[in-house]
């Protein structure tokens, strides 16, 4: 009996030691993370304008000139929208005005305390553009989940939307399918990992595999450093987690309205369906065929298709918008 008791005490001591060690390592990581965040804040200034909307600052990046303004809208979880989209917008800035609006909790934008319902998302984007004096008509360029916001924009304010160029965009039919979204426990675990800075210990080679722009020639060395700094700052932010909570509700709002048939749309659709639970390519092509001026193209690549097919997308977009201007 005494031997068993001694073993139990030893196991408790070992468990306590391991728990204490993990806590100390996590504390060291968090302190290191905070130090580097402060350093990176001083080193990498926002390249665009910081616009106050609903009590928090939103980063709006603008470049290029043209009669048409392309508004790039990031997909869920994109920690650095301005740089993530650069492989595409850099090939279009000589023809159009380019604007990237980084939602609350994304990129250089601050975390907001406003709900992530569709009306709030849209009105914050519109207000940020208006304050930044980026005037429409707008051509919306949504990636992934922001496709919902773009469609809602066309439903609610059709006079502001010249066209939608969808980059594997979400549509309500897809969201209502049996979609496997990440479990909250997994998301909050990743949130914890990100907030204490353990992501900083990821090998750079692994980061390059996760983020193709780091291996491309589209970003210079300083921009690659900025890209990673934004990843350490904004990955799995509170606002990103809250967007998942509103996903079904937001989709139902759009589903309850009419398809914006009069808004010209061109969907670029990834053939490599990386999202389980639904046939995304088929649903997107079926949706676009209902639009009066609708066009789609399947691309043999993954979901972040603007990383892989930016030249083709830029070329097709220019041709599509030129056709619209002649109509």
Using brief descriptors, characterize the structure shown.
globular, Rossmann fold, 327 residues, 8 strands, single chain, alpha/beta, eight-stranded mixed beta sheet
Describe the overall structure:
The protein is an alpha/beta fold and 327 residues long. It has one domain (49-326): Alpha/Beta hydrolase fold, catalytic domain (Rossmann fold, 3-Layer(aba) Sandwich). The protein contains 14 helices and eight strands. An eight-stranded mixed β-sheet has the order 1-2-4-3-5-6-7-8, sandwiched between helices. Strand 1 (49-53) and strand 2 (56-63) form a beta hairpin. The longest helix is centred in the N-terminal third of the chain and has 42 residues, at 2-43. The radius of gyration is 22 Å and the shape is globular. The chain starts with a helix and ends with a helix. The relative contact order is 0.14.
């Amino acid at each position: 009996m005494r031997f068993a008791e001694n073993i139990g005490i030893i196991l408790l001591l070992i468990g306590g030691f391991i728990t204490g060690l993990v806590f100390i390592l996590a504390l060291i990581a968090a302190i290191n993370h905070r130090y580097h965040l402060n350093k990176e804040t001083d080193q990498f200034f926002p390249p665009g304008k910081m616009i106050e909307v609903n009590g928090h600052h939103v980063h709006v990046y603008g470049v290029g000139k043209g009669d048409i303004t392309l508004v790039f809208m990031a997909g869920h979880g994109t920690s650095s929208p301005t740089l993530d989209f650069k492989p595409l917008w850099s090939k279009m800035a000589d023809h159009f005005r380019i604007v990237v609006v980084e939602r609350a909790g994304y990129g250089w934008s601050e975390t907001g305390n406003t709900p992530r319902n569709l009306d709030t998302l849209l009105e914050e984007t519109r207000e940020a553009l208006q304050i930044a004096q980026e005037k429409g008509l707008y051509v919306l360029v949504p990636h992934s989940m922001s496709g919902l916001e773009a469609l809602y924009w066309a439903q609610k304010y059709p006079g502001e939307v010249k066209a939608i160029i969808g980059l594997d965009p979400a549509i309500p039919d897809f969201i209502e399918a049996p979609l496997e979204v990440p479990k909250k426990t997994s998301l909050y675990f990743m949130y914890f990992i990100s907030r204490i800075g353990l992501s900083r210990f990821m090998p750079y080679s692994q980061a390059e595999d996760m983020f193709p722009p780091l291996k491309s020639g589209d970003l210079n060395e300083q921009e690659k450093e900025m890209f990673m700094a934004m990843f350490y700052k904004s990955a799995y932010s509170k606002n990103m987690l809250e967007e998942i909570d509103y996903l079904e509700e937001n989709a139902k709002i759009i589903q309850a309205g009419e398809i914006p048939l009069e808004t010209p749309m061109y969907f670029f659709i990834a053939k490599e369906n990386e999202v389980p639970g639904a046939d995304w390519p088929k649903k997107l092509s079926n949706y676009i065929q209902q639009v009066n001026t609708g066009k789609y193209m399947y691309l043999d690549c993954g979901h972040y298709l603007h990383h892989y097919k930016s030249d083709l997308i830029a070329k097709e977009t220019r041709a599509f918008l030129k056709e619209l201007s002649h109509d």
